[in-house]
Amino acid sequence: MLNIMGLGLRGTKSLTLEEADALKESDLVYFEIYTSISPGNTVDSLSSLTGGMIRLADRNLIETDSEIINEAKNKIVTLLVTGDALSATTHNELRMEAQKAGVEVRIFENASIITAFISKTGLFNYKFGNIVSMPFIYENFFPVSVYDRIYINYSNNMHTLLLLDLKDGKTMGIQDALGILKRMEDSRKKGLIEPERIVIAGIAIGSENESIIYGNLDKVMEYNPPGSPASIIIPATINDNEREFLEAFARKIN
Amino acid sequence: MLNIMGLGLRGTKSLTLEEADALKESDLVYFEIYTSISPGNTVDSLSSLTGGMIRLADRNLIETDSEIINEAKNKIVTLLVTGDALSATTHNELRMEAQKAGVEVRIFENASIITAFISKTGLFNYKFGNIVSMPFIYENFFPVSVYDRIYINYSNNMHTLLLLDLKDGKTMGIQDALGILKRMEDSRKKGLIEPERIVIAGIAIGSENESIIYGNLDKVMEYNPPGSPASIIIPATINDNEREFLEAFARKIN
């Protein structure tokens, strides 16, 4: 039996009652540290909740997946994933491979940064287009397609949620992401990433240190809100109702 | 103090550990029954968890909002919302009005049908465009804009999640929703809603009776999967990886 379990956004505090029960029944618990990060004390807190050892599952363990699946053939194995259980493709890969190996898989959904951040800003979730991911940039890797996808949303009057990449347990910061977008603007020159463009940044959504700020792109970039994980919304037209919410629920950077 | 608390998709079993604690400390608990529905035993189960009376909050109570806000001025009041806490605009309205009245508001995010359904099908969440809602249709109310919005997504190669309306505690069924889309096709004639188009239906996602099926539109419509609440995905191009997932995780209707 393999449980793929969303941990939500608050560490063990956001485990559901049903998840906490399933966790206590588990013979073996893996904590996935490859696609996202959790509050700092999560491993200790999980250990004391389960009364046992927590194994950390990195990219190698998740993507080769034979160890987890082999264990799950005759044990109750739980893989804990920050946020929702299946938001990253890699967890659906593991789920499919487990099924092929004859292992029963149970999915426990939980809160995701996607809905939590969007709804907390007050922007309407049905006005969002494609979610876009911003990867780390290297000398020979500068995917301007990121800009193009935000632009398609914008042209269709859809807001864009921009998720920032994670590497070695650190997520990209707001300033870095906006800096890359400005370089993409220099390349495409469509007027999407201008100094006066309103952008919204969400940091550590769901945690005690949560902050949501907004303001002109250059102001937000200068302010460079600290903390992680962070995400950005590039809005299209913000209607009156959304504007009133945003002003009530987020802090303006001038 | 006003807690706006997502209940997730499984009734009280999907309350988080932190939510369960906050619920026990509450002086007054409202259960919102206007924007979505929960498993049938949820009210009884909530009553026994809180050891007290649960008040049902209907449209009138949520939208006039003075009763809840007045109570929250000197009591700990919790509003429980199925799914995520803030997915419906009306809960952000309440949150804003409470803030204006000087009431401290705490938000507890939880799983949403939006991410849970999409991720369980195996379709990639970053390939979805605008979420579209299908309202009940009346003689003088036939909003073909629903079709137009799905079409914009489709033209940009984005999948559409179609959420079905709720009225008097009942959600629209799959057959009714697809029937309305077919009538909209007759009006717009853009070839979007054709008999051979693949559609995916999700019923009671997260619950014990969950089912996800897919197939040609006419086959799914004929089969008319029972149960509620239900949602539909109208996919654009499904790539090879998504197709492999869909075949593994959903049941094909022939």
UniProtKB/TrEMBL annotation, chains A, B:
Where's the Tetrapyrrole methylase domain? 2-218
Any idea which UniProt keywords this protein has?
Answer: Methyltransferase, S-adenosyl-L-methionine, Transferase
- Entry superkingdom: Archaea
Looking up Gene3D superfamilies in the UniProt record yields:
Cobalt-precorrin-4 Transmethylase, Domain 1, Methyltransferase, Cobalt-precorrin-4 Transmethylase, Domain 2
Which GO biological process annotations does it have? methylation; protein histidyl modification to diphthamide
Task: State where S-adenosyl-L-methionine binds.
Answer: L9, D84, S112, I113, L164
Q: Which InterPro entries match?
A: 4pyrrol_Mease, 4pyrrol_Methylase_sf, 4pyrrole_Mease_sub1, 4pyrrole_Mease_sub2, Dphthn_synthase
According to UniProt, the reaction catalysed is: 2-[(3S)-amino-3-carboxypropyl]-L-histidyl-[translation elongation factor 2] + 3 S-adenosyl-L-methionine = diphthine-[translation elongation factor 2] + 3 S-adenosyl-L-homocysteine + 3 H(+)
The keyword Kinase appears for this protein: no
Describe the function of this protein: S-adenosyl-L-methionine-dependent methyltransferase that catalyzes the trimethylation of the amino group of the modified target histidine residue in translation elongation factor 2 (EF-2), to form an intermediate called diphthine. The three successive methylation reactions represent the second step of diphthamide biosynthesis.
Question: Which NCBIfam families does this chain map to?
Answer: dph5
Similarity section? Belongs to the diphthine synthase family.
- Name the PANTHER family on file: DIPHTHINE METHYL ESTER SYNTHASE, DIPHTHINE SYNTHASE
Indicate what this protein is called per its UniProt record: Diphthine synthase
